[in-house]
Amino acid sequence: MSLDSLQALYISELKDLYSAENQLLKALPKMVKAANSPDLSEAFKAHLEETKGHVERLEEVFQELSASPKGKKCKAMEGLIEEASELLKEDAAPEVLDAALIAAAQRVEHYEMAGYGCVRTYAKVLGFKKSAALLQATLDEEGACDKKLTTLAEGGINIDAHSEEEAVAPAKK
User: Fold this and answer.
1) Half-sphere exposure (CA, 13 Å, Cβ side) for 121?
2) Which member of 46, 68, 100, 156 has the greatest number of CB atoms within 10 A?
3) Which residue blocks in 66-128 are alpha helix, DSSP H?
4) How far is the CA of 111 from the CAs of 145, 146, 154, in angstroms?
5) Cα gap 30→15, rounded to integer Å
6) Who's near 26: CB < 8 A, 6+ residues apart?
7) pLDDT digits (tens, 9 = 90+) for 64-96
8) Which domains does the chain have, with CATH numbers?
9) Which of 33-42, 48-57, 91-100, 111-120 bottoms out in mean pLDDT, i.e. has the lowest?
């Protein structure tokens, strides 16, 4: 695909996000299973359901463009998911693993927020008002997920991970 126009870039970026979301659909169930904290597991389950909606919204955007969402693999998401998969192979205390899963999930959310912010702006410039609204809705959900993960981390998971660390080897003061 030649990137000779903003619309060509818009379609290319949408395809990247479509690939990213579909990769995430396969990865999130593993994160649900790996989470020690019931609250974190529930947050991952909720985001899995939201991600299904993100894919549907992207398909709607592609319909407006009369374009196919297929044809591109998001290598960035592939890398982020690979890093998260490596965490699951670590010999980690459950509380520490939860903190690591949050960090991995937030990297994913930040990548998605950057992508959705760009394509939403392209949609506005190109006059695709309905698509811009759909993309904004997804951007809002990605931001809310990121905030939820921060709340879980700061509300106890990181503290529990630190407490686990101190139980093994007290921190030097």
Assistant:
1) 7
2) 100
3) 75-89, 94-126
4) 13, 11, 21
5) 24
6) none
7) 999 999 989 999 999 999 999 998 888 888 889
8) 6-166 (1.20.1260.10)
9) 91-100
